[in-house]
């Protein structure tokens, strides 16, 4: 299982929101590229980047710092937030070398765009964020809730050819209350898509529990920033477990 630390970008800074509320943010670094470098030195192999301003404004906003992060580290990077057209997809994947992009709002509102991106780049480069609020898919930086059931949406993604989804329970995100394991169990029993767990991780025990379920990955944010996780140790332990299982 991949342990994937998150850097959420707002105004060029690394921040965390509480339940997606843009008015409830904590700034953790004014130099996100150095934070990314620290993650790489801890043994992180995949980094999760989110352009929060981009998600809210429906366009790529933090391009400059994202490019700087990409130039600073060699580890793999996945990026979401404000990616609403092929020009932006191409810029991130082809021009600056992001490893895979995460489509969210655009994947729901414009399935033809999702299909085009998937056709052009493949399922290894195009993944989808399924952000869930009260059983429905949330969009526009979590500011809007659609009428689409999350399971119906996941079915549609599988039919289109998506292989990997990042599922976030918005009610848990940034709360340090633990993940909604029942939600992820429901998703895993319903779909064979590779599942990345996101939202609510509070300590290393939560990460090990996610690993035991056999999920593809786990995103870690506030728990690390608030000092509840020794990321280097967790990565080492999960890696050893992966080697035992393989």
TrEMBL record:
InterPro entries, A to Z: Aldolase_TIM, His_biosynth, HisA/PriA, HisA_bact_arch, Isoase_HisA-like, RibuloseP-bd_barrel
EC number, as in UniProt: 5.3.1.16
Q: Quick one: a GO cellular component term?
A: cytoplasm
Q: Which GO terms describe its molecular function?
A: 1-(5-phosphoribosyl)-5-[(5-phosphoribosylamino)methylideneamino]imidazole-4-carboxamide isomerase activity
Residues annotated as the enzyme's active site: 8 (proton acceptor), 131 (proton donor)
Q: Which residues form the signal peptide?
A: none
The pathway it acts in is: Amino-acid biosynthesis; L-histidine biosynthesis; L-histidine from 5-phospho-alpha-D-ribose 1-diphosphate: step 4/9
GO aspect biological process, one term: L-tryptophan biosynthetic process
* Entry keyword set: Amino-acid biosynthesis, Cytoplasm, Histidine biosynthesis, Isomerase
Q: What class of enzyme is it?
A: isomerase
What does it catalyze?
1-(5-phospho-beta-D-ribosyl)-5-[(5-phospho-beta-D-ribosylamino)methylideneamino]imidazole-4-carboxamide = 5-[(5-phospho-1-deoxy-D-ribulos-1-ylimino)methylamino]-1-(5-phospho-beta-D-ribosyl)imidazole-4-carboxamide
Q: What is the annotated localization of this protein?
A: Cytoplasm
Name of a matching Pfam family: His_biosynth
Where primarily located?
cytoplasm
Which PANTHER family is this protein grouped with? 1-(5-PHOSPHORIBOSYL)-5-[(5-PHOSPHORIBOSYLAMINO)METHYLIDENEAMINO] IMIDAZOLE-4-CARBOXAMIDE ISOMERASE (PTHR43090:SF2)
Q: Which NCBIfam families match?
A: 1-(5-phosphoribosyl)-5-[(5-phosphoribosylamino)methylideneamino]imidazole-4-carboxamide isomerase (TIGR00007)
Provide the family line: Belongs to the HisA/HisF family.
**Name the record gives this protein:** 1-(5-phosphoribosyl)-5-[(5-phosphoribosylamino)methylideneamino] imidazole-4-carboxamide isomerase
Q: Which organism is it from?
A: Eggerthia catenaformis OT 569 = DSM 20559
Task: Give the gene name.
Answer: hisA
């Amino acid at each position: 299982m991949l342990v994937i630390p998150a850097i959420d970008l707002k105004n060029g800074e690394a921040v965390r929101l509480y339940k997606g509320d843009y008015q409830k943010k904590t700034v953790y670094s004014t130099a996100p590229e150095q934070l990314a470098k620290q993650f790489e030195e801890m043994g992180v192999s995949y980094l999760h980047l989110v352009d929060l301003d981009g998600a809210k404004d429906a366009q790529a906003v933090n391009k400059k710092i994202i490019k700087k992060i990409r130039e600073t580290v060699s580890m793999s990077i996945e990026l979401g937030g404000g990616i609403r057209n092929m020009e932006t997809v191409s810029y991130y994947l082809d021009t600056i070398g992001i490893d895979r992009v995460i489509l969210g709002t655009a994947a729901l509102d414009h399935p033809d765009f999702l299909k085009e991106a998937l056709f052009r780049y493949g399922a290894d480069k195009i993944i989808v964020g399924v952000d869930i609020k009260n059983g429905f898919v949330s969009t526009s930086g979590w500011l809007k809730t659609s009428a689409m059931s999350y399971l119906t949406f996941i079915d549609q993604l599988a039919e289109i050819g998506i292989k990997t989804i990042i599922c976030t329970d918005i009610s848990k995100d940034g709360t340090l209350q633990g993940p909604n394991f029942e939600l992820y169990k429901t998703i895993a029993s319903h779909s064979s898509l590779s599942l990345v767990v996101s939202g609510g991780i509070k300590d290393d025990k939560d990460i090990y529990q996610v690993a035991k379920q056999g999920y593809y990955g786990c995103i870690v944010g506030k728990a690390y920033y608030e000092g509840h996780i020794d990321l280097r140790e967790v990565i080492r332990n999960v890696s050893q477990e992966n080697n035992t299982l393989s």
